[in-house]
Design brief:
The protein has 108 residues and is mainly α. It contains five helices and no strands.
Length: 108
Amino acid sequence: MNVALALMFILISSIFGAFSTLLFKLGAGLKINLQNYKLMGAFILAGVSFVFYIYALQQASLTFIYLTASVSYIWAIILAKTVLKEKINKYKIIGISLILLGIVVMHL
């Protein structure tokens, strides 16, 4: 097991996954077809995310990978704030803090 390599793969996976989610959101209001480049880009990024996730699973335990992948929620909130101009309220900040705390505690 190579935990450092797994961590790198899962962080890359989570970033691609968050951008994929953003593109799904942006493309959801458009007609669903092959010319909806936002949805097509979302599918491609989701596929890339999945590949890195599989590589991460080869390097470490499922519990380590699955818990660490929850950082994708944080990326999604950051993208929602910066790109979609969504508000980050105190509940989202508490949620981010709990995710980070959970990751730290589970890796002790």
